[in-house]
């Protein structure tokens, strides 16, 4: 039976994208009911942008699509975990993961593409 | 140089706790500036409960402390990643991880303790 996700007052839940093979945490973004539906229908990660106020598909601009192998929910059903096969890098800065820095400012992440080349038409 | 975390209008950021060894994503909770400060000072994960409106230390009741090896921030500095050494299980249901179900309702997580024994005085 499908778990009923608690989207709360804002109609959004945070979703963690994790590399299904390596276990690396790639990013966190927000998901609306429609974004979850599209993700499950297409097998590609969709999110909802709070700043642009719109549904978006990860990789629609960059080509860095996330192929979703599994969607998990937490105990309270108010957070999602997308287990993904990530094309290229998840981060718009060119890193594999958005979590490429420690809070102390040390650079610990791997840069896998040049954002100037990927986003040059924006 | 320490990264300035963007706690936003609510004064909270989501924090993902990940097992530093296995890479398993354990839970997501929220962190206030004080919770982050306490986490960094003590090396034990602290969060802020939105429902109880108070700072809490993970494991203070259950004994299932999270020893924090590293704190990372994402590209926008509005999400944290705690890399932890988790005593026992992270989830109040007795599972190692709060993400023990798929959205289809399949049970995929490991149960590591009996919550009735751990929380029996609550």
UniProtKB/TrEMBL annotation, chains A, B:
* Cofactor remark from the record: Binds 1 zinc ion per subunit.
Give GO BP annotations, semicolon-separated: L-histidine biosynthetic process
Q: Ranges for the Phosphoribosyl-AMP cyclohydrolase domain?
A: 27-100
**GO CC annotations on file:** cytoplasm
SUPFAM superfamilies to which the protein is assigned, alphabetical: HisI-like
User: Which superkingdom heads the taxonomic lineage of this protein's source?
Assistant: Archaea
**Catalytic activities:** 1-(5-phospho-beta-D-ribosyl)-5'-AMP + H2O = 1-(5-phospho-beta-D-ribosyl)-5-[(5-phospho-beta-D-ribosylamino)methylideneamino]imidazole-4-carboxamide
Top-level enzyme category: hydrolase
Record Pfam families = PRA-CH (PF01502)
Q: What is its EC number?
A: 3.5.4.19
The UniProt record gives the binding positions of Mg(2+) as: 74, 76, 78
Residues recorded as binding Zn(2+), renumbered to this chain, are 75, 91, 98
Q: Which cofactor does it need?
A: Zn(2+); Mg(2+)
UniProt entry keywords in alphabetical sequence: Amino-acid biosynthesis, Cytoplasm, Histidine biosynthesis, Hydrolase, Magnesium, Metal-binding, Zinc
Name one molecular function that GO assigns to this entry: zinc ion binding
**This protein's pathway:** Amino-acid biosynthesis; L-histidine biosynthesis; L-histidine from 5-phospho-alpha-D-ribose 1-diphosphate: step 3/9
Give the matching InterPro entries: PRA-CH, PRib_AMP_CycHydrolase_dom, PRib_AMP_CycHydrolase_sf
User: Main location per UniProt?
Assistant: cytoplasm
> Where is this protein localized, as stated in its record?
Cytoplasm
Keyword set includes Cytoplasm: yes
**Matching HAMAP family, A to Z?**
HisI
What family is reported?
Answer: Belongs to the PRA-CH family.
Role description? Catalyzes the hydrolysis of the adenine ring of phosphoribosyl-AMP.
Please give the subunit comment from the record: Homodimer.
Q: What is this protein called?
A: Phosphoribosyl-AMP cyclohydrolase
Q: What is the lineage of its organism?
A: Archaea, Methanobacteriati, Methanobacteriota, Stenosarchaea group, Halobacteria
